[in-house]
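Form 7-S
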Amino acid sequence: MNLLRANPWFETVEEARRRARRRLPSSVYGALVAGSERGRTLGDNAAAFAELGFAPRVAGQHGVRELATTILGVETPLPVVVSPTGVQAVDPGGEVAVARAAANRGVIMGLSSFASKPVEEVCAVHPNVFFQLYWSGGREVMLQRMERARRAGAKALVATLDWSFSQGRDWGSPVIPERIDVRTALRMAPQVLPRPGWLWRFARSGGIPDLVVPNLRRPGGEAPTFFGAYGEWMGTPPPTWDDVKWLREEWGGPFLLKGVCRVDDARRAVDAGVSAISVSNHGGNNLDTTPATIRLLPSIARAVGGEIEVLLDGGVRRGGDVAKALALGARAVLIGRAYLWGLAANGQAGVENVLDILRAGLDSAVLGLGRSSVHELRPDDLYVPPGFAVTLGGDRAPGR
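Output:
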């Protein structure tokens, strides 16, 4: 009996990861799990949560707990955001399937500019989409991309500026083909043929598509390939803080700066007028040996949490992780690999499954800690071991 068909539901994110590994060709799975260089930051992002302990109460718990919040003015029943991630070739539905799942659970959807589905299709199935933009292609091009997202209905802009070129992996980088021609199909056959379920899902949907990014298509042109878009980004001079301010002003609405690891950068972000920041190291895909984001969160939340919203991404695998982040000052968390494993394991239903797991785990933590709302979570709900928290960038920004 095929147990995956007999029991498509899974009870942990880790089980979703195991099923994703069994279902996906090795290169596709490798693209989901790999971090840069030695993978130290990738591992620490998740492991650091386990170093934090809960301080539960034995009586006085509340029979009803409030998990809802607002993020950049958008109401959501769960302080979890689907983080924007690149081309989602783990399932034919890709970002549209993820958007439907997020909409069904009332969770905000982050859509990458490197997505495999156009922003118009995603916004058509989800009313609360945050569009993510890299600093790529020059100001005129970025203005066009922002206007397109605005017309499609995106509620906020997410500027991701923390991606470096440090991608070499000690265990080898996965092969990611841009075009699926005969030669590529033959080369990939040893990986793909042992995964007939994955191949059949794409075959029913018209075949494995070329790796293009439609949200970076310029007016009158074709959508660039993934590596063409990657090359454009690499060739664009890095942004300054004046550029961040320009992006925020041109967007004119809720603005999230993703990739903050330092207190001085957090303060500069406030000066630039951002609405929110995400404490992020790009899921371990930026500069390896950057500390886990949960270690960096407390000092950043203390520095700017009273002025802007502070979110966190990196390593969230359980609802208890969400509770710990909120207790240390985050308003919400973003998840990436967790929902992609759910998508690979069981399509749209798998993403909904992951969101349900996080909701149940968060509710259990709020109950055990004797709180009636996620907004009541505090550092004294946790055991934080000595030396756990890390402060980068000092307490003040230059000139402030």
